[in-house]
Amino acid sequence: xxxxxxxxxxxxGSYFQLALKIKDILTVVHMQYxxxxxMLGCDQKVYGQGTVDFMTALACIQLENxxxxxxxxxxxxxxxxxxxxxxxxxxxxxxxxxCLAKGTGCGTFKPSRTYPDIRGAMTWSVNWDVTNGGGFxxxxxxxxxxxx
Length: 148
Prior knowledge:
Layout: H1 14-21, E1 29-32, E2 39-40, E3 46-47, H2 52-64, E4 72-76, H3 90-102, E5 120-123, H4 126-131, H5 135-144
Helix pairs in contact: 2-3, 3-5
């Protein structure tokens, strides 16, 4: 599944409900952590896109409301030009993954627990990654091997 951030803000939303109804066969949710502006995190505080806090606080909503960590992945643009907003350096993606999996690299938001089995991250366009020098795959890909 590849929902917008708005679709996964609450278990009351139809998209989130669908994910929960099919959770026994659901492999992964790559929520789109971009082009959404500011959104609420699981602590009900507002976070601006393009930050480690945005990724971790929004992933927390899915993780604390019924999806398993191995079903939650961070979906981000590969670099400048790939999206209108929410583009982050690959190192920021790695920080968000570390925050969720190990409790390190967090910004001001720190989840109440860790999720060592977090699924990982993906980018929406290999072509944009190539255009941007392969920084996403070259930075985030190897980092996934360091997660628990």
